[in-house]
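Lab notebook, page 48
Experiment: co-folding of the full assembly
Goal: obtain a model of how the components sit together before planning crosslinking
Operator: M.T.
Materials (sequences as entered):
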Amino acid sequence: MKYEEYFEQYGDLTYCNVGTSMLPLIKQGRDLFTITKKGEERCKKYDVVLYRRPPGQYVLHRIIEVRRDDYVILGDNCINKEYGITDDDILGVMTGFMRKGKNYTCENFGYKVYSWVWVMFAPVRILAKRAILWVKRHIKKMIGKKTNG
Amino acid sequence: MKLKEGVIVNEIDGQTFAVDAGSGRERFNGLVRMNKTGGFIVGLLQNETDMDSIVRALTEKYDVTAEVARVNAAKVIDALAGAGLLE
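Observation: model returned without errors.
Model output:
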């Protein structure tokens, strides 16, 4: 069965993620999320959405900007924004999640604060992560040069 | 038989979900959605058990005959096994 068929049959989906892109909110092997099938209405900033990334990948990331024709999307633990995701690509919106064995809805005040803070400070987080990656890469290069030299 | 390690069980709005969250996967699978009785059976399968014990537990908890309990348990077990959620 495909995601689309599952949503058609049940209208919602409780499932798990693969990877680290939604850390620290959702951790692979520990947490579950519930997605409700998207309706006609447009998604909102801060919504976590399940969308199709051509050719056949399904991704769970957060909307950080709503534009006229598409959305700007970013995983909570990612540094590269994704552009060009349209309403047609989005299968559903996260309405709740189970974290460390406890269920939360996306109406939870603490979750809303987390979403707001996370999106607000995304530029700082991205800059810091890029700086750390840059330093790590240069340290590796230096070690490589010393070993070869 | 019992649930495989890494299977997470969650109950939302009276429905029970068993999801294999332990292993990364390429395809959409490893998920079983059940009603309350299915959730009860999944609860039993969190520890090592067998069909007879499950049937006994079902007849003690619900007002059903052993035959009906066995048919229902087999359905849930087949669904879980089919999704690769059982050891």
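Interpretation: The domain at 3-122 of chain A is CATH 2.10.109.10 (Umud Fragment, subunit A).
Next step: discuss with group before ordering constructs.
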